[in-house]
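Predict the assembly for these two chains.
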Amino acid sequence: MINQTQIKNIDWILIALLVVNTMIGIAVIYSSSHHVPGNYYLRQIFWTLLSLVVLFVLLTVGYNLLVTYSLYFYFGCISILAAILIFGKLIAGTKSWIKLEFIQIQPSEITKIAIILLLARVFSEYKKKFLSKDAGLSSIFFVFMPVMLVALQPDLGTALSYIPILLASFILAGLTRKTLALLLIITLVAVIISWGFFLKDYQRDRITTLLSPEKDPLGSGYHIIQSKIAIGSGGLFGKGYGRGTQSQLQFLPARHTDFIFAVIGEELGFVGVVVIGVFYFLFLARLFQSVSKSRDRTGVYIIFMVAVMITSQFFVNVFMTIGLFPIAGIPLPLLSYGGSSLLTNYIAVSLVLNVKMRRFVNI
Amino acid sequence: MMNNKIYEDLSLVLSRARISFVIVRVLFVILILYFWKLQILDYQKFWLKSEANRIREIAIPPQRGLIRDRNGVVLAKNIASFKASLIRENCKNYDESCANISALLELEPEVLKERVDKYKSLPVFQPIVIKDNLTHEEVARIKSRQYELPELIVQTEPKRNYPFGTLASHVLGYLQEISPAEMDMEQYKHRRLGDLVGRTGIEKQYEQILAGTEGKLFEIVDSLGRGIGETSKINPVRGDEIKLTIDFDLQKKAEEILEGREGAVVVMKPNTGEILAMASYPNFDPNRFINRFTPEEWMDLINSPEFPLENRTIRGLYAPGSLFKPTIALAGLDQGLVNDSTTVVCHGSTVIYGHPFACWKRDGHGVVNLYSAIQHSCNIYFYQLGKRIGIEEIARYARMLGFGSPTLIDLPGEKTGLVPDPEWKKRVRDELWYPGETISVSIGQGPLLVTPLQIAVYTAVIANRGLKVAPHLYEVEIHEGQEIRRLQENNPGERIPIPEIYFEKIVQGMWKAVNESGTASLARVRDFNVCGKTGSAQVVSKATAEKLAKQKREIKTHSWFTGFAPKDNPEVVVSLIVEYGGGGGATAAPSGRELLELYKTKYD
């Protein structure tokens, strides 16, 4: 299963960057939540240790094997998502529903891994120069299923976070101008239809708020305004660790989860943002550079999709905190509090390591 | 790669991945630039916003200035009181909050919502007063549920208190919540919705002096509006004290005299215009309705047929009756129509312009001259004289002596009264002046209307032998322990263009009325040389008669007395009216004596 060469080729620098970013996250989680009950930082440490164990255990299984069984993982996830949707609805309104809600989030995160593996399988033998109709439609279908199921929960943010993974595979497969135009039209139509029929009022508010948050400063604009105030008032050096008035006095919503970057901006200032940004950039750069360290197409797809998945979430989250993107409820990978998200990202990085360490092995 | 043949050619996908990473790098640069804009370029703007977020300004109400009498007795002070306020921002669920709070404070939910709605224009974090004058038990109840109901808070505020209750209630006035209309006025621009402001009396007149300046507390709050600590504080500035010209003892006596009888009393210093006492009955206890929410008691007072809220000394309009006779006498003297030797024979009645006019004394006064006409208040003398003077001249002299225009006392809402003349009648009633009306006016009847204060000022002018006087209640204000007189004493010291000698004759007649068994002899005070005049004003108006009939009361005349003492260098003027008191000599004059006696024992 695993041999000396492979162990020698484990990318310790990537693991180090992963853990450093996670630790930065824990430090900020502590600052933003130590004064409220819940011990979030301790829980995050526990999840980190657990995720590290999973990361290393998964390295023992070759990624090709994982890709081979990807269809099973995928359908496993789909059935869990569907089951939760039906089961959750049956007992809606009772107290046990809240517990179930907590579990609901988990499969939708792990599903990202299943999607990556399945798409890697779809494109593993793909030799054409550009994306074909068959490959395109089948992969759209595979991603559309979990998107619908999660959107119905309803967790639109997570559902939409699957799309960049699909897009990543399309980019590698190659997009002609025609396909690109077609995709844009489909997106536009989907947006218009969902605006009219599927989006709930609060979701529409979040988007319109983006354009003019001052219209409703205590309603839907509140989060964006408070977040921007937090970041802007941090200035060059910030208000000091644990001393952000916006976060400590609880003006900032979801401080330790979705809006954690606003805490960084407020307490550590522009300098802190740049330093932490650089660490994050190094981590993402390492992921993107790992793409060329794969010996086969499957590996290239896996690493690239992981890199795009984490990168897209990073940008969506940070743009959200500065009011350039609607509030989507997407956590900042590695930095935000949240066990399932952390575990998913560690598994994703584990796949990258898996591909890299096996690059010199003959088939 | 050393053995390219084993591995497939991935150059195309790898180049695509590289290009994608270029986009990521560009996005990173954009991100950093945007943070530069937010955190460096716009820093000041956001920093101010975050400070405004966390720092809340809380108004600290100032203590209202005390009101004292001329000797320092405190007539209006402040006591601590608790009020409950709702902070809408902190309501998790507004309807639920209302339900909880209405149960806790024993308020009807609709009433509660109505109160909150009244202030819905205020920012959501600002406390809205929903109940004031809380009992200690209510305060304890709210405090015990502080954590469940962060939206409900208890604040202390100084509350106005009048230690003597009804005493001088019309002079002092009372406070009421500022109205939306007042909020727009320049004079109240620093006040807040929910503030109490002077509504009548001195409290209104000197609102600016008494109100003081609000203090501010800057408090750090969390997003739920819970106070976490203070940052700084600007102390409120207490309003200045006002010392009134009122004399506590005379005021008390004046009210005792009226007790149970509708009427009004004015005691003043004729030379300076200082009001020593000003009483009106029925009165009210302002302590009972100083709160924000108009209680039933106040509504009862407003709707009462006796108008207890009205200050009759400046707002009660009465016919002056015989008190007007000195005006006629002065006009006659000044016009040269009469002198000391002019006499009239009174048979008890006379016929003028074909109508019979009666004297109050049916048997008649016999031969009367100027002095005895005033002394015994002979109607016939003044009918004759009035007829000769004519209404135009009567009106001119009446106005000269202060009737028909406000005395300009420092109290809000003073009425002007009415001095009728043909021009007035034409304008208001579109009718011609009947000569018979002149005869009525000559003895202070007809459409002629005066306030008790106008009578006091008129009496002072006579006592001063023609020197005008401006009545006032403000004596001095006390700013940080220092007496300062911010208001110019409005004493014109002007002389009325009637020779002093004529006033002397009127004074002589009034002295006789008191001291030589005249109509006002019951006002006599030993060794005080009181001069006085009584009046019994007929209540002729239809409305008043109906009002009396409704109350099943005997229709009596209003009983007047006005006088001053001593005759030379007068010190005090007393004017009073008892509504439906009957004859002035029998009812009002003895009351006048009591006040003059008290003045004499206290100040002589």
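Residues 173 and 324 of chain A are 30 Å apart (CA to CA). Chain A touches chain B through 51 residues (CB under 8 Å).
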